[in-house]
């Protein structure tokens, strides 16, 4: 089969396109999926460069990954088995099932829950892995996964549109769930034009919150169309004044952040007493300045959000089927052009998600 394979941590040269990679065979509890499309996300880039290493202090768009320690280059703080097929957001058709997998899935179009769980203890965050990181993912014509990690989806959306959801939207919903976002909240969202950011806008509005999005001006119209109540520059010089002038309040109850970096103290200072901060990324840099007096005197709660409970994915599939969220497909590329697609992803001129589409394969015997 055709597949893009990560052979080492590093630059784009670490990704190699193969046309003779072995088709995986499903294990007893796995299904074999013919991939129709697979979305890109920051985890792919960060794992390739080794950005997750504690030795790296720069943002995800820097060359700081060159400083990564081989001992902790992946999200879980451990090495990734190489070679590895990346790609978490796979959508496709189930074409075969293992002996102990659900046979009714064969012939159905499915989305994949990115979190590989110990299904005997599914809430144990210490025993989770990630699709396309700890096991091979969807940047290929075929992939295999535990049958409990897939859901058939009844939707008129295309494979490419469905491939924009799993990672970004489950990450966003997990953030909002962890922060307990509700209809009385004023939610400030950083990086609002990216995959997770644009998902946060839609999902926070679904919960009835007042949504304030930060993004570059060229992307404001799209974010308003997604439901943002207020869109501001991505780093206003005086954030409280900008909020006060547009909302009547100079503070928010929740900050949902995927950016971090030097602007981070301004975000924390914008929270009301008892406010909540939640993060699932740090594209502008992971090292931030925190005045502990702000944390304890303002009774703030800080949440990190990575591994999410299983119901988040099930809820997301329901939102999609009921039309409560919509895809934001920025561009599609052929699988063999993954390097170009990832370059465009890193440049962040788009709004939403970028997807790669494998060529239609010859069915395996």
Verbal overview:
It comes from Sulfitobacter aestuariivivens. By secondary structure, this protein is an alpha/beta fold. It folds into 2 domains: 3-164 and 327-357, Medium-chain alcohol dehydrogenases, catalytic domain (Quinone Oxidoreductase, Chain A, domain 1), CATH 3.90.180; 172-304, Rossmann fold, CATH 3.40.50. It has 10 helices and 17 strands. Strand 11, helix 5 (220-226) and strand 12 (230-232) form a beta-alpha-beta unit. Helix 3 crosses helix 4 (195-206). The protein is globular.
Helix-and-strand structural type: alpha/beta
Give me the count of strands. Answer: 17
**Which CATH first-tier class of the largest domain would you pick?**
Alpha Beta
Compressed to H and E, one letter per element, the order equals EEEHEEEEEEHHEHEHEHEHEHEHEHE
- Which architecture of the largest domain would the CATH scheme give at its second level? Alpha-Beta Complex
Question: How large a portion of the residues is in β-strands, by DSSP E?
Answer: 15-25%
Terminal Cα span:
12 Å
Number of discrete domains: 2
Runs with pLDDT <50, length 5+?
A: none
Shape: globular
Assigned CATH superfamily of the largest domain = Medium-chain alcohol dehydrogenases, catalytic domain
Attribute tags:
365 residues, Quinone Oxidoreductase, Chain A, domain 1, 7-stranded mixed β-sheet, 17 strands
Outline the fold blueprint.
Blueprint: E1 3-6, E2 15-18, E3 30-39, H1 42-49, E4 89-97, E5 109-112, E6 115-116, E7 129-130, E8 142-146, E9 150-152, H2 159-162, H3 166-179, E10 186-189, H4 195-206, E11 210-214, H5 220-226, E12 230-232, H6 239-247, E13 252-257, H7 264-269, E14 271-279, H8 292-297, E15 301-304, H9 311-321, E16 329-334, H10 338-347, E17 353-357
Parallel strand pairs: 10-11, 10-13, 11-12, 13-14, 14-15, 16-17
Antiparallel strand pairs: 1-2, 3-4, 3-8, 3-17, 4-5, 5-9, 6-7
Helix pairs in contact: 3-4
């Amino acid at each position: 089969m055709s597949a893009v394979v990560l052979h080492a941590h590093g630059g784009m040269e670490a990704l190699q396109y193969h046309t003779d990679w072995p088709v995986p065979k499903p294990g007893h509890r796995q299904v074999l999926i013919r991939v129709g499309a697979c979305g890109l996300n920051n985890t792919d880039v960060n794992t390739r460069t080794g950005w997750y290493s504690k030795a790296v202090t720069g943002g995800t768009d820097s060359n700081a990954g060159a400083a990564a320690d081989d001992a902790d280059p992946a999200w879980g703080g451990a090495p990734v088995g190489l070679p590895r097929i990346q790609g978490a957001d796979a959508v496709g058709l189930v074409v075969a099932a293992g002996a102990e997998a659900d046979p009714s899935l064969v012939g159905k179009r499915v989305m994949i829950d990115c979190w590989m769980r110990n299904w005997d203890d599914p809430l144990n965050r210490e025993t989770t892995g990630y699709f396309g990181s700890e096991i091979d993912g969807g940047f290929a014509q075929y992939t295999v996964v535990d049958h409990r990690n897939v859901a058939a989806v009844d939707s008129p959306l295309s494979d490419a549109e469905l491939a924009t959801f799993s990672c970004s939207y489950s990450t966003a919903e997990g953030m909002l769930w962890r922060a307990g976002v509700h209809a009385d909240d004023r939610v400030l969202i950083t990086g609002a034009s990216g995959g997770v950011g644009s998902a946060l806008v839609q999902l926070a509005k679904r919960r009835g919150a007042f949504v304030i999005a930060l993004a570059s001006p060229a992307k404001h119209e799209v974010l308003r169309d997604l439901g943002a109540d207020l869109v501001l520059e991505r780093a206003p010089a005086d954030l409280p004044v900008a909020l006060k002038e547009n909302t009547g309040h100079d503070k928010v109850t929740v900050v949902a952040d995927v950016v971090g970096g030097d602007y981070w103290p301004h975000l924390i200072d914008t929270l009301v007493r008892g406010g909540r901060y939640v993060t699932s990324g740090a594209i502008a840099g992971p090292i931030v300045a925190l005045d502990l007096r702000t944390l304890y005197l303002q009774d703030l709660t800080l949440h990190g959000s990575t591994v999410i409970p299983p119901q988040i994915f099930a809820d997301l599939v329901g939102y999609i089927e009921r039309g409560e969220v919509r895809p934001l497909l920025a561009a599609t590329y052929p699988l063999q052009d993954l390097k170009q697609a990832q370059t465009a992803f890193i440049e962040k001129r788009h709004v939403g998600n970028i997807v790669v589409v494998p060529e239609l394969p010859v069915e395996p015997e």
